[in-house]
Amino acid sequence: MKVRLYLRVLSVALVTTAVWAGDAIPKAAWRRPLGLPLEKPGVTRIAGNIDDGFWQGAPVGGFGSGTFSRTYRGDFARWHMKAGVHKYAPVYANQFAMFQQAEGEAEGTARVLMTDHPADGSLASWQWDYPVGAGEYAALYPKSWYDYKWDKFPAHVVLEQFSPVLPNNYRESSYPVAVYRWHAENPTKHAVTVSVLLSWTNMVGWFRTFTRDFQGAPSQGNHNQFVSEKIDAAMMKGVAFQRNRASTAPREADGQFAIAALESPGVEVSYQATFPSEGDGKAIWTGFAKDGRLANSDLSWVSDGEKLAGAIAVRFTLQPGEKKVIPMVIAWDFPVVEFGEGRQWDRRYTDFYGTSGNNAWAIARDGLRNASAWSDAIDAWQGPYVNDESKPLWYRGMLFNELYTLTDGGSFWGRPVGSDVKTPSSFALLECFDYAYYGTLDVRFYASMPLLKFWPDIDKQVLREFADTVPKEWPEKGQWVWKSQLTGEPSLHLRKKKGAVPHDLGVPEGDPFIAVNEPGWQDTNDWKDLNSKFVLMVYRDYVLTGSKDAAFLRQMWPVSYTHLTLPTILRV
Asked: Are 445 and 439 in contact (CB under 8 A)?
């Protein structure tokens, strides 16, 4: 099934009364009680390999834009913002919180929507430890839901989370934006005031190292700014997070985050542009816990090394039986990727937003404008598959939930800085973060079918990348680690021989797409499966896309026949 999305929505989706989200969560979605640990979690058996435990959630972010994840415990903890680098560390000031007060009650209830609390004792004034099991997490990638059911919250609220990862879509699927649609329903006989808070840390400059944590992450020069603008019938309000720069041309660590929501009749947005993210948090919590409002402070200063955060809160009142859908977004703009040997690339989404690194607000604006349409498009794509009762329920869910790695697997999509805009963007996934090789061909032979089915232009471009390397030779030598360990002496081999399909397109610490077939554990030049698998993938991509792309076949034929098929026949 192909779904083509041409979205230029002119009107803003302010408040809707569509199908209630709690009833609309597909049965095929993976589910888990909020914050409930697994009874017998699996663990890694190899010392040094990544094992972040089981507190995971579906990622947000597009192809090659960088991704992050909020766990089903409720904290933002998994960060893949720098291409090819995995960081796992909760950032406690990055939170959602909720306030509710029923009409006639003397005071309301406010709680951070996390079933835990900061290990470092920060933000001590905030009310943490949302009750374990008071609701459910569900995931059917690219969507996930947090269904909050707590007896102290009279209104029923469901958070719908996604990024616009859509089939046969090569624009919105690259966007660095996360959409959060709050579906609120009042099942009581009294009016209920609801307020949702989103706080965020200024993390600009934090994603520049290859380490797996934020040790040494700089905040010097960071500053936040309250921003507002009128959009159609609404007022967009939020906070932009940025950093002083040495020049106008952004480096890899330069860019922006932005959080935003829409204010309209009956929906109030309040804000706090800046507060210390590791302090007691009273500047945020005192007002929010009282009536669901922030101080509307645009106070801003430049960090002297301290970590800064900002927050917005969306407040509205539901009459008995009323339902509302309220969108919020997190957007980011880090246009430059720099790999280990220094080559710089522009991410794919910069084709639509430019390369300045100052466009997080514009991306957030598009996220708010298109939130409803994107959500509907994802549902339309998934519907025929997840509602196909001829297949087991678990199978229908896995079909989509296993697609997360296409964006979250260290994916890269971009072109070299300064190259012609007509230059096709290179694309690759890591085999995994423990074995961080881009595009390993022996693995993608089995794993790339979803990419071919839903984003065939990307899959064909990957094969073109491999084809370009086949007639070339890289004479530099590298160590064959496995054999060297056996013999006790250095065992060397050519990086890549002429006529050989490379095992991979390089590594993040190196110069991927330029220096391919990164020397490592084995000499792959004579592997018997790589050349034959490449030819089979060329044939597969041609046939399964309708046997009409003659241009692709003409590009692949000289390499497939002269360097791969014919030499194989002659050897036999």
From this structure: no
Residue 245's DSSP bridge partners are none
- Tokens 């980011």 belong to 332
Backbone torsions φ then ψ of 570, nearest 5 degrees: -65, -35
Q: In the chain, how long is the greatest CA-to-CA distance? A: 87
Partner residues linked to 315 by β-bridges: 195, 268
CB 308 within 8 A of CB 201: yes
Strand partners, 427: 413
pLDDT digits (tens, 9 = 90+) for 33-77: 999 999 988 888 888 899 999 999 999 999 999 999 999 999 999
> Could you tell me if 494 and 473 are in contact, meaning their C-beta atoms sit under 8 angstroms apart?
yes
CB distance 85 to 213 below 8 Å: no
- 131 in Cβ contact with 115 (< 8 Å): yes
Confidence of residue 19 (pLDDT cuts 50, 70, 90): low
How many other CB atoms sit within 10 Å of the CB of residue 501? 27
pLDDT digits over 513-550, tens only? 999 998 788 899 989 899 999 999 999 999 999 999 99
| Short-list 275, 292, 192, 205, CA closest to 239 | 275
Q: Kindly give the pairing relationship between strand 59-60 and strand 143-148.
A: unpaired
Distance of alpha carbon 367 from alpha carbon 260, whole angstroms: 9
* Alpha-carbon separation of residue 470 from 286, 498, 523, 535 (angstroms): 64, 6, 16, 12
**CB distance 319 to 186 below 8 Å:** yes
Buried b (16+ CB within 10 A) or exposed e, 242-253: bbebeeeebbbb
CA distance 480 to 474: 15
Q: d(Cα 97, Cα 117) in Å, to the nearest integer?
A: 13
CA distance linking residue 229 with residue 367, whole number of Å: 15
Q: Which amino acid is at 212?
A: R
8 A C-beta contact, residue 136 and residue 167: no
Q: Which amino acid is at 67?
A: T
Beta strands in 410-519 (DSSP E): 412-416, 426-428, 474-479, 492-496
Residues 309, 201 contacting (CB under 8 angstroms): yes
Rounded Cα gap, residues 299 and 224, in angstroms: 9
Look-up of token digits 């804000």 = 271
Give the whole-angstrom CA distance, residue 493 versus residue 473.
Answer: 12
Question: Does position 6 have pLDDT exceeding 80, yes or no?
Answer: no
* Helix, coil or strand: residue 565: helix
Cβ-in-10-Å burial (0-12, 13-18, 19+) of 106 comes to: exposed
Residue with tokens 């909050």: 148
Tell me how far apart the alpha carbons of residues 183 and 24 are, in angstroms, rounded to a whole number. 11
Average pLDDT for the chain = 92
